[in-house]
């Protein structure tokens, strides 16, 4: 509105000048020149207003009255990598014990766990393989988690021997395999924290159903005693926890894990442990908040 008033005043000034220099007071040539000068003056004086009137509003620039606004980046999902154990370069997992195989139990529980975690906002599930019988080395499994930038590599297995119940393992020291030394001290520390977060969730869910063998280091396993840590741990750049869900050599354990109800219970126990771990990450500022 002020720009329009400014232009109107300039035009009125031009008309006043033209009325003063009428033809009866000046010659025709002088009159024509006066008209031209007045019009040019009006254009020059009002030009900036006309030029600005047709331009869009200027975009704010940093340091010029405000920074340019950028859309907020979407929150990045936390990746959980599930590794159902076997078949690998060490064991096919197809040995039948008490009517079940480790390969089947690992796969079935991992599928149920993946479905549970996939329902959680802010969580993305990655699996080390898409087909149950696909042969993958332990190094290849760790590399899947590495490429995905996983916040946790969770390895699911079933044990054999004289014991019973569930056990959590984490790399408590570096090992060496194929000339490679790992995991890093940072991964060792993060894996210990992950195991400590997972364990209470599992223990609460499985109380009265399976014996709780607690948390142990990779170095206490047969493979760990030979090479320092489990192979999947050595090559992992993500916090890594191996869960021996049951002892298949123990009949009651085998009966539990082969039943649909037992598999559901184990999957929920693992999911509860994972959620406790993720909430710990969020509280520490190392991961996205999980609802």
Secondary-structure blueprint:
Elements: H1 2-20, H2 28-53, E1 78-84, E2 96-97, E3 100-101, H3 102-118, E4 123-127, H4 138-148, E5 152-159, E6 166-170, E7 175-177, E8 180-182, H5 185-206, E9 212-217, H6 222-227, H7 231-234, E10 240-247, H8 251-258, H9 260-284
Parallel strand pairs: 1-4, 1-5, 5-10, 6-9
Antiparallel strand pairs: 2-3, 6-10, 7-8
Helix pairs in contact: 1-2, 3-9, 5-9, 8-9
Specify the CATH class of the largest domain: Alpha Beta
Our measurement of the CA-to-CA distance between the termini, rounded to an integer number of angstroms, reads: 52 Å
Question: How much of the residues is beta strand, in percent?
Answer: 15-25%
- Mean pLDDT equals 82
Structure description:
The chain has 291 residues and is α/β, with parallel strands linked by helices. The protein folds into two domains: 2-50, no CATH class; 78-283, Aminopeptidase (3-Layer(aba) Sandwich). Helices cover 47% and strands 17% of the residues. The protein contains nine helices and ten strands. The chain has helices at 2-20, 28-53, 102-118, 138-148, 185-206, 222-227, 231-234, 251-258, 260-284, and strands spanning 78-84, 96-97, 100-101, 123-127, 152-159, 166-170, 175-177, 180-182, 212-217, 240-247. The strands form three sheets. A six-stranded mixed sheet has the order 4-1-5-10-6-9, with helices on both faces. A two-stranded antiparallel sheet has the order 2-3. A hairpin with a 2-residue loop joins strand 2 (96-97) and strand 3 (100-101). Helix 1 runs antiparallel to helix 2, helix 5 packs across helix 9 and helix 8 (251-258) packs across helix 9 (260-284). It is globular. It starts with a helix and ends in a 7-residue tail after the last helix. The model is unreliable at 1-69 and 287-291 (pLDDT under 50).
